[in-house]
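Tutorial handout. Part one gives the primary structure; part two gives the three-dimensional structure as tokens.
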Amino acid sequence: MVEPIFDHERLDVYRLAIEYVTSSYRIAKSLSGHERHARDQWLRAAQSKPSISLLSPPADGTYARRA
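Part two.
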């Protein structure tokens, strides 16, 4: 794994979100035909997860329960 450059890259929740994106792309390769619309939406949602995990802090201010 590449050494983190930015502080947010050290967060467990961010790393897990990136792993989810990677696994989503691996699985999505097998989807085609009538499944392509669901596949495309799934990949868009997966890509947004790392950003959401960084931009929306939990209401109680703790990150430990979220990860």
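Part three, for discussion. The chain has one domain: 7-55. Residues 7-55 form one domain.
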